[in-house]
Amino acid ABC transporter substrate-binding protein/permease (Arthrobacter pullicola), 490 residues
Amino acid sequence: MHSGKRALKGPASLAVPLTSLLAALALLLGTPASGAFAATQEPGAVEGKTYTIGTDTTFAPFEFRENGELVGIDMDLVNAIAEDQGFDVEIRSLGFDAALQALQSNQVDGVIAGMSITEERQKVFDFSDPYFESGIQMAVAENNNDVAGYEDLEGKRVAVKTGTEGQAFAESIKDQYGFDVIAFAQSAQMYDDVKAGSSVAVFDDYPVLAYGIKSGNGLKTVTEKETGSSYGFAVNAGANPELLAAFNAGLANLQESGEYEEIMDRYLDAGAADSSFWSLVTDNAPAFAKGLGLTLLATALSLFFALILGIIFGFFKVSSKVVLRGIATTYVSIFRGTPVLVQAFFFYFGLPQLIGQPVDVLTAGVLTLSLNAGAYMTEIVRGGIQSVDPGQMEAARSLGLGYGKTMQKVVIPQAIKIMTPSFINQFVITLKDTSLLAVIGFAELTYQAQQIYAVNFRTAEVLLIVAALYFIVITLLTKLADVLDKRFNK
Ligand code: GLN
Protein backbone atom coordinates (compact mmCIF):
# COMPACT_ATOMS: atom_id res chain seq x y z
CA MET A 1 0.00 0.00 0.00
CA HIS A 2 2.60 2.53 1.07
CA SER A 3 5.52 0.97 -0.66
CA GLY A 4 7.27 4.29 -1.07
CA LYS A 5 6.85 5.30 2.53
CA ARG A 6 9.95 5.22 4.64
CA ALA A 7 10.69 4.38 8.22
CA LEU A 8 14.07 4.76 9.80
CA LYS A 9 14.53 1.06 10.43
CA GLY A 10 12.62 -1.95 11.67
CA PRO A 11 9.64 -3.79 10.18
CA ALA A 12 7.11 -1.81 8.21
CA SER A 13 4.54 -4.53 8.81
CA LEU A 14 2.74 -2.60 11.52
CA ALA A 15 2.17 0.41 9.35
CA VAL A 16 -0.28 -1.18 6.96
CA PRO A 17 -2.89 -2.30 9.49
CA LEU A 18 -2.42 1.01 11.26
CA THR A 19 -3.05 3.16 8.23
CA SER A 20 -5.99 1.07 7.12
CA LEU A 21 -7.31 1.39 10.63
CA LEU A 22 -6.97 5.15 10.40
CA ALA A 23 -8.74 5.20 7.08
CA ALA A 24 -11.57 3.07 8.47
CA LEU A 25 -11.73 5.35 11.45
CA ALA A 26 -11.90 8.42 9.25
CA LEU A 27 -14.81 6.90 7.37
CA LEU A 28 -16.50 6.05 10.64
CA LEU A 29 -16.11 9.64 11.80
CA GLY A 30 -17.68 10.85 8.62
CA THR A 31 -14.55 12.54 7.28
CA PRO A 32 -13.49 11.27 3.90
CA ALA A 33 -10.35 9.16 4.11
CA SER A 34 -7.23 11.08 3.24
CA GLY A 35 -6.59 11.14 -0.45
CA ALA A 36 -10.27 11.01 -1.32
CA PHE A 37 -10.19 14.68 -2.22
CA ALA A 38 -7.84 14.12 -5.07
CA ALA A 39 -10.61 12.87 -7.31
CA THR A 40 -13.05 15.64 -6.54
CA GLN A 41 -10.68 18.58 -6.77
CA GLU A 42 -10.07 20.50 -9.95
CA PRO A 43 -6.51 19.96 -11.01
CA GLY A 44 -4.56 23.20 -10.78
CA ALA A 45 -6.82 24.67 -8.09
CA VAL A 46 -3.74 25.64 -6.09
CA GLU A 47 -1.69 26.99 -8.95
CA GLY A 48 -0.10 30.37 -8.34
CA LYS A 49 -1.43 30.57 -4.79
CA THR A 50 0.73 31.11 -1.73
CA TYR A 51 0.01 29.07 1.39
CA THR A 52 1.38 29.78 4.85
CA ILE A 53 2.63 26.64 6.50
CA GLY A 54 3.43 26.41 10.19
CA THR A 55 6.19 24.17 11.49
CA ASP A 56 8.24 23.33 14.56
CA THR A 57 11.41 25.19 15.48
CA THR A 58 13.91 22.38 16.03
CA PHE A 59 12.79 18.83 15.25
CA ALA A 60 15.76 17.42 13.36
CA PRO A 61 15.87 15.76 10.87
CA PHE A 62 12.38 17.01 9.95
CA GLU A 63 12.93 20.72 10.53
CA PHE A 64 15.94 22.52 11.92
CA ARG A 65 18.26 25.36 11.10
CA GLU A 66 21.53 24.94 9.27
CA ASN A 67 23.55 28.13 8.90
CA GLY A 68 20.41 30.10 9.60
CA GLU A 69 18.34 28.33 6.91
CA LEU A 70 15.37 26.14 7.78
CA VAL A 71 16.09 22.70 6.36
CA GLY A 72 14.97 19.12 6.95
CA ILE A 73 12.77 16.38 5.51
CA ASP A 74 9.53 18.32 6.03
CA MET A 75 10.95 21.47 4.50
CA ASP A 76 12.35 19.68 1.44
CA LEU A 77 9.13 17.69 1.02
CA VAL A 78 6.78 20.63 1.19
CA ASN A 79 8.97 22.73 -1.09
CA ALA A 80 9.29 19.94 -3.64
CA ILE A 81 5.53 19.29 -3.54
CA ALA A 82 4.79 23.00 -3.93
CA GLU A 83 7.06 23.15 -6.93
CA ASP A 84 5.52 20.02 -8.41
CA GLN A 85 1.99 21.37 -7.97
CA GLY A 86 2.75 24.97 -8.87
CA PHE A 87 1.96 26.74 -5.60
CA ASP A 88 4.13 28.77 -3.23
CA VAL A 89 4.71 28.23 0.46
CA GLU A 90 5.67 30.63 3.16
CA ILE A 91 7.09 28.76 6.13
CA ARG A 92 6.53 29.94 9.71
CA SER A 93 8.81 28.28 12.22
CA LEU A 94 6.65 28.56 15.32
CA GLY A 95 7.21 25.58 17.59
CA PHE A 96 5.04 22.47 17.61
CA ASP A 97 2.24 23.44 19.94
CA ALA A 98 2.24 27.01 18.63
CA ALA A 99 1.94 25.75 15.05
CA LEU A 100 -1.15 23.70 15.92
CA GLN A 101 -2.68 26.69 17.70
CA ALA A 102 -1.91 28.87 14.70
CA LEU A 103 -3.61 26.37 12.41
CA GLN A 104 -6.71 26.21 14.58
CA SER A 105 -6.97 29.99 14.64
CA ASN A 106 -6.46 30.11 10.86
CA GLN A 107 -3.21 32.05 11.10
CA VAL A 108 -1.61 29.41 8.90
CA ASP A 109 -3.16 27.29 6.15
CA GLY A 110 -1.43 24.06 7.04
CA VAL A 111 1.09 22.42 9.35
CA ILE A 112 3.99 20.16 8.51
CA ALA A 113 5.97 19.39 11.64
CA GLY A 114 6.57 15.67 11.97
CA MET A 115 2.96 15.74 13.07
CA SER A 116 1.49 12.39 13.99
CA ILE A 117 -1.86 11.44 12.55
CA THR A 118 -3.78 10.61 15.71
CA GLU A 119 -7.43 9.88 16.34
CA GLU A 120 -7.80 12.93 18.55
CA ARG A 121 -6.35 15.26 15.97
CA GLN A 122 -8.46 13.83 13.17
CA LYS A 123 -11.47 15.30 14.91
CA VAL A 124 -10.21 18.82 14.21
CA PHE A 125 -7.75 18.45 11.35
CA ASP A 126 -7.71 16.78 7.95
CA PHE A 127 -4.50 14.91 7.23
CA SER A 128 -2.71 14.12 4.00
CA ASP A 129 -1.61 10.63 3.14
CA PRO A 130 1.03 9.52 5.65
CA TYR A 131 4.61 10.21 4.57
CA PHE A 132 6.65 8.74 7.42
CA GLU A 133 6.16 6.02 10.04
CA SER A 134 7.09 7.06 13.52
CA GLY A 135 6.63 5.93 17.10
CA ILE A 136 7.51 7.02 20.61
CA GLN A 137 10.68 5.99 22.37
CA MET A 138 12.30 6.79 25.70
CA ALA A 139 15.83 8.15 25.99
CA VAL A 140 18.03 8.81 29.01
CA ALA A 141 21.34 10.60 29.53
CA GLU A 142 24.32 8.72 28.09
CA ASN A 143 25.89 8.27 31.53
CA ASN A 144 22.68 7.16 33.24
CA ASN A 145 22.90 3.49 34.13
CA ASP A 146 20.01 3.47 36.57
CA VAL A 147 17.13 3.64 34.14
CA ALA A 148 16.77 0.59 31.92
CA GLY A 149 12.99 0.46 31.61
CA TYR A 150 9.78 2.23 32.54
CA GLU A 151 9.83 0.50 35.98
CA ASP A 152 12.92 2.50 36.90
CA LEU A 153 11.06 5.79 36.48
CA GLU A 154 9.24 5.45 39.80
CA GLY A 155 9.36 8.69 41.79
CA LYS A 156 11.35 10.38 39.01
CA ARG A 157 10.53 13.06 36.48
CA VAL A 158 10.44 12.76 32.69
CA ALA A 159 10.56 15.55 30.12
CA VAL A 160 8.25 15.86 27.10
CA LYS A 161 7.30 18.50 24.56
CA THR A 162 3.97 20.28 24.98
CA GLY A 163 1.11 18.93 22.91
CA THR A 164 3.02 16.05 21.35
CA GLU A 165 2.32 12.38 21.06
CA GLY A 166 5.34 11.84 23.35
CA GLN A 167 3.56 13.81 26.04
CA ALA A 168 0.32 11.89 25.53
CA PHE A 169 2.18 8.59 25.80
CA ALA A 170 4.06 9.64 28.95
CA GLU A 171 0.82 10.83 30.56
CA SER A 172 -0.88 7.55 29.67
CA ILE A 173 1.63 5.42 31.61
CA LYS A 174 2.74 7.79 34.37
CA ASP A 175 0.31 6.50 37.00
CA GLN A 176 1.12 2.92 36.23
CA TYR A 177 4.87 3.55 36.69
CA GLY A 178 4.63 6.35 39.26
CA PHE A 179 6.58 9.15 37.57
CA ASP A 180 5.97 12.87 37.00
CA VAL A 181 5.82 14.58 33.63
CA ILE A 182 7.15 18.05 32.82
CA ALA A 183 6.36 19.63 29.47
CA PHE A 184 8.57 22.08 27.59
CA ALA A 185 7.72 24.19 24.55
CA GLN A 186 10.94 23.44 22.66
CA SER A 187 12.89 20.23 22.08
CA ALA A 188 16.20 21.77 23.16
CA GLN A 189 14.84 22.65 26.62
CA MET A 190 13.48 19.15 27.02
CA TYR A 191 16.83 17.54 26.14
CA ASP A 192 18.78 19.97 28.31
CA ASP A 193 16.56 19.09 31.26
CA VAL A 194 17.55 15.45 30.90
CA LYS A 195 21.23 16.19 30.41
CA ALA A 196 21.21 18.44 33.46
CA GLY A 197 19.75 15.52 35.44
CA SER A 198 16.57 17.37 36.43
CA SER A 199 14.54 14.84 34.46
CA VAL A 200 15.79 11.28 34.09
CA ALA A 201 14.22 10.53 30.73
CA VAL A 202 12.55 12.02 27.69
CA PHE A 203 9.76 10.62 25.51
CA ASP A 204 10.05 11.67 21.90
CA ASP A 205 9.62 10.35 18.37
CA TYR A 206 12.16 7.63 17.68
CA PRO A 207 13.52 8.97 14.35
CA VAL A 208 14.22 12.28 16.06
CA LEU A 209 15.90 10.60 19.03
CA ALA A 210 17.93 8.42 16.69
CA TYR A 211 19.06 11.42 14.66
CA GLY A 212 19.92 13.41 17.78
CA ILE A 213 21.88 10.55 19.32
CA LYS A 214 23.79 10.11 16.07
CA SER A 215 24.63 13.80 16.12
CA GLY A 216 25.97 13.43 19.65
CA ASN A 217 23.20 14.93 21.78
CA GLY A 218 24.43 13.08 24.87
CA LEU A 219 21.47 10.73 25.17
CA LYS A 220 20.91 7.02 24.61
CA THR A 221 17.89 4.77 24.24
CA VAL A 222 17.41 1.80 26.52
CA THR A 223 13.94 0.55 25.57
CA GLU A 224 12.31 -0.46 22.30
CA LYS A 225 10.16 2.05 20.47
CA GLU A 226 6.42 1.94 20.95
CA THR A 227 4.32 1.40 17.87
CA GLY A 228 3.17 4.82 16.88
CA SER A 229 1.43 6.75 14.22
CA SER A 230 2.59 8.13 10.91
CA TYR A 231 3.32 11.71 10.03
CA GLY A 232 0.96 13.68 7.86
CA PHE A 233 0.48 17.20 6.60
CA ALA A 234 -2.54 18.85 8.28
CA VAL A 235 -5.12 21.47 7.41
CA ASN A 236 -8.18 22.50 9.41
CA ALA A 237 -11.04 20.05 9.02
CA GLY A 238 -12.95 20.99 5.90
CA ALA A 239 -10.63 23.91 5.06
CA ASN A 240 -8.27 24.13 2.09
CA PRO A 241 -9.26 20.76 0.56
CA GLU A 242 -7.48 21.78 -2.66
CA LEU A 243 -4.22 22.19 -0.73
CA LEU A 244 -4.57 18.76 0.84
CA ALA A 245 -5.33 17.23 -2.54
CA ALA A 246 -2.33 18.95 -4.08
CA PHE A 247 -0.12 17.73 -1.24
CA ASN A 248 -1.24 14.14 -1.83
CA ALA A 249 -0.84 14.41 -5.57
CA GLY A 250 2.62 15.98 -5.19
CA LEU A 251 3.66 13.37 -2.63
CA ALA A 252 2.62 10.58 -4.99
CA ASN A 253 4.60 12.19 -7.82
CA LEU A 254 7.71 12.52 -5.64
CA GLN A 255 7.45 8.89 -4.58
CA GLU A 256 7.12 7.88 -8.20
CA SER A 257 10.02 9.99 -9.42
CA GLY A 258 12.34 8.86 -6.64
CA GLU A 259 12.72 12.37 -5.24
CA TYR A 260 10.99 11.32 -2.04
CA GLU A 261 13.65 8.65 -1.53
CA GLU A 262 16.38 11.20 -2.29
CA ILE A 263 15.08 13.59 0.34
CA MET A 264 14.94 10.82 2.95
CA ASP A 265 18.47 9.71 2.09
CA ARG A 266 19.75 13.25 2.28
CA TYR A 267 18.85 13.40 5.97
CA LEU A 268 18.70 9.81 7.16
CA ASP A 269 21.58 8.02 5.51
CA ALA A 270 24.02 10.85 5.95
CA GLY A 271 26.17 8.43 7.97
CA ALA A 272 27.18 9.03 11.53
CA ALA A 273 28.40 12.56 11.87
CA ASP A 274 32.03 12.98 12.82
CA SER A 275 31.66 13.84 16.46
CA SER A 276 35.21 14.91 17.28
CA PHE A 277 35.79 18.25 18.92
CA TRP A 278 37.94 19.40 16.04
CA SER A 279 35.22 18.67 13.48
CA LEU A 280 32.81 20.65 15.63
CA VAL A 281 35.17 23.61 15.19
CA THR A 282 35.80 23.13 11.46
CA ASP A 283 32.21 22.28 10.51
CA ASN A 284 30.96 25.42 12.16
CA ALA A 285 33.87 27.66 11.26
CA PRO A 286 31.82 29.73 8.77
CA ALA A 287 29.13 30.40 11.37
CA PHE A 288 31.71 31.28 14.04
CA ALA A 289 33.53 33.56 11.58
CA LYS A 290 30.34 35.34 10.62
CA GLY A 291 29.41 35.74 14.29
CA LEU A 292 32.81 37.07 15.22
CA GLY A 293 32.72 39.51 12.31
CA LEU A 294 29.37 40.91 13.42
CA THR A 295 30.54 41.05 17.04
CA LEU A 296 33.55 43.13 16.02
CA LEU A 297 31.48 45.32 13.70
CA ALA A 298 28.93 46.11 16.41
CA THR A 299 31.75 46.75 18.91
CA ALA A 300 33.66 49.08 16.60
CA LEU A 301 30.62 51.11 15.58
CA SER A 302 29.34 51.34 19.15
CA LEU A 303 32.69 52.42 20.56
CA PHE A 304 33.10 55.04 17.87
CA PHE A 305 29.77 56.67 18.72
CA ALA A 306 30.26 56.11 22.45
CA LEU A 307 33.58 57.93 22.34
CA ILE A 308 31.96 60.92 20.65
CA LEU A 309 29.11 60.90 23.18
CA GLY A 310 31.59 60.49 26.04
CA ILE A 311 33.69 63.45 24.96
CA ILE A 312 30.70 65.73 24.39
CA PHE A 313 28.88 64.87 27.60
CA GLY A 314 32.14 64.59 29.57
CA PHE A 315 32.90 68.21 28.77
CA PHE A 316 29.29 69.14 29.51
CA LYS A 317 29.79 67.63 32.95
CA VAL A 318 32.77 69.82 33.82
CA SER A 319 31.19 72.86 32.21
CA SER A 320 30.39 75.93 34.29
CA LYS A 321 26.91 76.06 32.68
CA VAL A 322 24.33 74.39 34.85
CA VAL A 323 22.11 73.47 31.86
CA LEU A 324 24.89 71.52 30.16
CA ARG A 325 25.77 69.78 33.40
CA GLY A 326 22.10 68.94 33.86
CA ILE A 327 21.79 67.43 30.37
CA ALA A 328 24.89 65.29 30.84
CA THR A 329 23.84 64.13 34.30
CA THR A 330 20.39 63.12 33.05
CA TYR A 331 21.88 61.19 30.13
CA VAL A 332 24.32 59.33 32.35
CA SER A 333 21.77 58.46 35.00
CA ILE A 334 19.29 57.06 32.49
CA PHE A 335 21.74 54.83 30.68
CA ARG A 336 23.71 53.80 33.72
CA GLY A 337 20.57 53.29 35.74
CA THR A 338 18.81 50.77 33.46
CA PRO A 339 19.92 47.30 32.32
CA VAL A 340 21.49 46.96 28.85
CA LEU A 341 19.08 44.14 28.09
CA VAL A 342 16.08 46.40 28.71
CA GLN A 343 17.67 49.06 26.50
CA ALA A 344 18.19 46.53 23.71
CA PHE A 345 14.57 45.38 23.91
CA PHE A 346 13.46 48.99 23.94
CA PHE A 347 15.40 50.02 20.83
CA TYR A 348 14.46 46.89 18.90
CA PHE A 349 10.85 46.26 19.93
CA GLY A 350 9.78 49.57 21.50
CA LEU A 351 11.29 52.25 19.28
CA PRO A 352 9.56 51.00 16.09
CA GLN A 353 6.22 51.54 17.80
CA LEU A 354 7.15 55.09 18.71
CA ILE A 355 8.50 56.10 15.29
CA GLY A 356 6.14 53.96 13.26
CA GLN A 357 8.80 52.17 11.25
CA PRO A 358 10.97 49.13 11.82
CA VAL A 359 14.47 49.49 13.23
CA ASP A 360 16.90 46.93 11.88
CA VAL A 361 18.72 44.81 14.39
CA LEU A 362 22.21 46.24 13.79
CA THR A 363 20.94 49.80 14.24
CA ALA A 364 19.07 48.87 17.41
CA GLY A 365 22.13 47.03 18.74
CA VAL A 366 24.55 49.84 17.98
CA LEU A 367 22.15 52.43 19.43
CA THR A 368 21.93 50.40 22.63
CA LEU A 369 25.62 49.84 23.07
CA SER A 370 26.71 53.36 21.99
CA LEU A 371 24.32 55.08 24.33
CA ASN A 372 25.14 52.70 27.14
CA ALA A 373 28.93 52.83 26.73
CA GLY A 374 28.66 56.58 26.05
CA ALA A 375 27.30 57.08 29.56
CA TYR A 376 30.28 55.31 31.09
CA MET A 377 32.70 57.14 28.77
CA THR A 378 31.17 60.42 29.93
CA GLU A 379 32.12 59.56 33.47
CA ILE A 380 35.60 58.49 32.40
CA VAL A 381 36.15 61.80 30.58
CA ARG A 382 34.79 63.81 33.49
CA GLY A 383 36.89 61.88 35.99
CA GLY A 384 40.00 62.26 33.84
CA ILE A 385 39.66 66.01 33.50
CA GLN A 386 38.81 66.52 37.13
CA SER A 387 41.68 64.41 38.36
CA VAL A 388 44.16 66.85 36.97
CA ASP A 389 45.10 69.01 39.92
CA PRO A 390 43.14 72.31 39.66
CA GLY A 391 46.34 74.03 40.81
CA GLN A 392 47.73 73.38 37.33
CA MET A 393 44.89 75.21 35.66
CA GLU A 394 45.37 78.12 38.04
CA ALA A 395 49.13 78.16 37.46
CA ALA A 396 48.77 78.12 33.66
CA ARG A 397 46.07 80.78 33.73
CA SER A 398 48.21 83.02 35.98
CA LEU A 399 51.03 82.68 33.46
CA GLY A 400 48.67 84.30 30.96
CA LEU A 401 47.44 81.18 29.04
CA GLY A 402 43.76 81.29 28.02
CA TYR A 403 41.23 78.69 29.20
CA GLY A 404 41.20 76.88 25.85
CA LYS A 405 44.97 76.77 25.52
CA THR A 406 45.37 75.59 29.12
CA MET A 407 42.91 72.79 28.50
CA GLN A 408 44.62 71.80 25.26
CA LYS A 409 48.23 72.02 26.40
CA VAL A 410 48.13 71.25 30.08
CA VAL A 411 44.98 69.51 31.28
CA ILE A 412 43.89 67.24 28.43
CA PRO A 413 47.25 65.52 27.79
CA GLN A 414 47.43 64.53 31.44
CA ALA A 415 43.75 63.59 31.52
CA ILE A 416 44.11 61.26 28.52
CA LYS A 417 46.93 59.45 30.27
CA ILE A 418 44.74 58.96 33.32
CA MET A 419 41.70 57.94 31.24
CA THR A 420 43.39 55.35 29.01
CA PRO A 421 43.14 52.32 31.32
CA SER A 422 39.44 53.06 31.93
CA PHE A 423 38.82 53.41 28.20
CA ILE A 424 40.43 50.04 27.53
CA ASN A 425 38.26 48.59 30.26
CA GLN A 426 35.14 50.01 28.60
CA PHE A 427 36.20 48.61 25.19
CA VAL A 428 36.32 45.15 26.73
CA ILE A 429 32.97 45.57 28.46
CA THR A 430 31.27 46.76 25.27
CA LEU A 431 32.72 43.90 23.26
CA LYS A 432 31.33 41.42 25.77
CA ASP A 433 27.99 43.23 25.93
CA THR A 434 27.44 42.57 22.22
CA SER A 435 26.58 39.00 23.31
CA LEU A 436 23.40 40.37 24.88
CA LEU A 437 22.21 41.35 21.42
CA ALA A 438 21.64 37.64 20.73
CA VAL A 439 18.26 38.08 22.43
CA ILE A 440 17.06 40.47 19.76
CA GLY A 441 18.27 38.11 17.05
CA PHE A 442 21.48 39.91 16.09
CA ALA A 443 23.56 37.15 14.51
CA GLU A 444 26.75 37.78 16.50
CA LEU A 445 28.93 35.13 18.10
CA THR A 446 26.67 34.08 20.99
CA TYR A 447 23.65 33.90 18.69
CA GLN A 448 25.61 31.62 16.34
CA ALA A 449 26.49 29.39 19.27
CA GLN A 450 22.83 29.06 20.24
CA GLN A 451 21.91 28.16 16.67
CA ILE A 452 24.63 25.54 16.52
CA TYR A 453 23.83 23.72 19.74
CA ALA A 454 20.10 23.78 19.03
CA VAL A 455 20.93 21.34 16.24
CA ASN A 456 23.82 19.26 17.55
CA PHE A 457 23.05 19.45 21.29
CA ARG A 458 26.75 19.89 22.13
CA THR A 459 25.99 22.86 24.35
CA ALA A 460 29.05 22.73 26.61
CA GLU A 461 31.58 22.34 23.81
CA VAL A 462 30.05 25.02 21.61
CA LEU A 463 29.93 27.49 24.50
CA LEU A 464 33.55 26.69 25.36
CA ILE A 465 34.61 27.42 21.78
CA VAL A 466 32.74 30.70 21.80
CA ALA A 467 34.15 31.69 25.19
CA ALA A 468 37.65 30.91 23.89
CA LEU A 469 37.05 33.09 20.82
CA TYR A 470 35.93 36.02 22.97
CA PHE A 471 38.90 35.48 25.25
CA ILE A 472 41.42 35.42 22.41
CA VAL A 473 40.01 38.51 20.74
CA ILE A 474 39.83 40.45 23.99
CA THR A 475 43.35 39.45 25.01
CA LEU A 476 44.73 40.53 21.63
CA LEU A 477 42.87 43.83 21.75
CA THR A 478 44.02 44.67 25.27
CA LYS A 479 47.61 43.80 24.35
CA LEU A 480 47.36 46.10 21.34
CA ALA A 481 45.85 48.85 23.46
CA ASP A 482 48.66 48.49 25.99
CA VAL A 483 51.28 48.86 23.27
CA LEU A 484 49.55 51.98 21.92
CA ASP A 485 49.22 53.35 25.42
CA LYS A 486 52.95 52.92 26.08
CA ARG A 487 53.76 54.50 22.72
CA PHE A 488 51.68 57.62 23.07
CA ASN A 489 51.30 58.17 26.79
CA LYS A 490 54.93 58.16 27.83
N1 GLN B 1 5.12 13.47 16.18
C1 GLN B 1 4.86 14.14 17.41
C2 GLN B 1 3.46 14.66 17.46
O1 GLN B 1 2.84 14.84 16.47
C3 GLN B 1 5.85 15.26 17.70
C4 GLN B 1 5.92 16.31 16.66
C5 GLN B 1 6.89 17.41 17.01
O2 GLN B 1 7.41 17.49 18.12
N2 GLN B 1 7.19 18.27 16.06
O3 GLN B 1 2.93 14.86 18.49
User: Anything to note?
Assistant: The pocket of glutamine is lined by residues 56, 59, 96, 113-116, 134, 161, 164-165, 205 (CB under 6 Å). The chain has three domains: 11-131+232-268, 133-229, 279-488. Residues 285-317 form the longest helix (33 residues).
